[in-house]
Amino acid sequence: MEIFGIPSQALFGQLLIGLINGSFYALLSLGLAVIFGLLNIINFTHGAQYMLGAFVAYLGLTKLGLNYWVSLLVTPLVVGASGMLIERTMLKQLYKLDHLYGLLLTFGLALIIQGLFRNEFGSSGMPYPAPEIFQGAFNLGFMFLPKYRAWVIVASLVVCISTWYVIERTKLGGYLRAATENPSLVQAFGINVPRMITLTYGFGVALAALAGVMAAPIYQVNPTMGADLIIVVFAVVVIGGMGSILGAILTGFGLGLIEGLTKVFYPEASNVVIFVIMTIVLLIKPAGLFGTQK
Fold it and tell me: So where are the chain's domains?
């Protein structure tokens, strides 16, 4: 069976790959949007923290015998705690300065972390097995859907929607949003704003680490995996609107699908289509599709 002259299996296969990539785009851009929207920090360390998530899971398996499910719970806590340490010891000093200083600091940290891991582990990928329960695939009739990839898509959707709900629909989210607009007023109500900021940064970093654990069985574990992805994720955030939670989620999944379709109909453009879309969006709506002009 063919659709627009393309074999249906090839078309649906690329859409599946696009949806999987979109799951990671959404998770990573969500973490970036949380950090920027609530802290006004452009966190260039995000790609390295995604890579750290994969490596902590890999080392937990090879050194401590921790299985995938334990790593899925423990790794975001460990990497998130390291992010909170960075926020308390380094980023805290830059809040009153121009955003450029935070960007340069996080970019430098990313290069240091990536360089240390490349020096220790080299640049080749290391395999990380998927859980036994996710071995095999579902037969959908028109294609086979690997069980682990189906899990990644569902888990990403659940995490993204839950995060959006907490930030946009709960009292805690209201405090977080208020703290970015008027921290002195929120502090007057007895809320520890510095602690809230630290926890928020840690949560954004934990989302990157969670994405790293889920990506490890698909893309393998290597020190450059974050550097290869972070530029695309920043483009996703810009298109969705800097700081927009809903924009990060919808744009992440949407651009993953567009990228997959491009690989079918015009493969030569698949590596640049997201940046072409970013350029068009910035020309038409500089604040992004879901952003607001300040």
Answer: 21-223
